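Appendix B. Raw example, untouched.
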Amino acid sequence: MALTFDFASKVILVTGGTRGIGLAAVRLFLASGAKVIFSGRQNAPAIQELANLLTTEFGPGMVKGICCDAGDAAQVKDC
């Protein structure tokens, strides 16, 4: 029996969402209908490129990528 989740009315924030487990979580939440904001610490152009690829895959208005170190309170405040 496969587990399915409906996140259609949810907005999810994934820190460290540009690679590995974080990116897998971003993809799973998007596939479950959630709107997703993901962050990465470095390389804003690469984060935007990833957001564009995910938008192509999951549709406009579903995903946004931001360059922000979630461990730095000043950066989080500016996000």
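End of appendix B.
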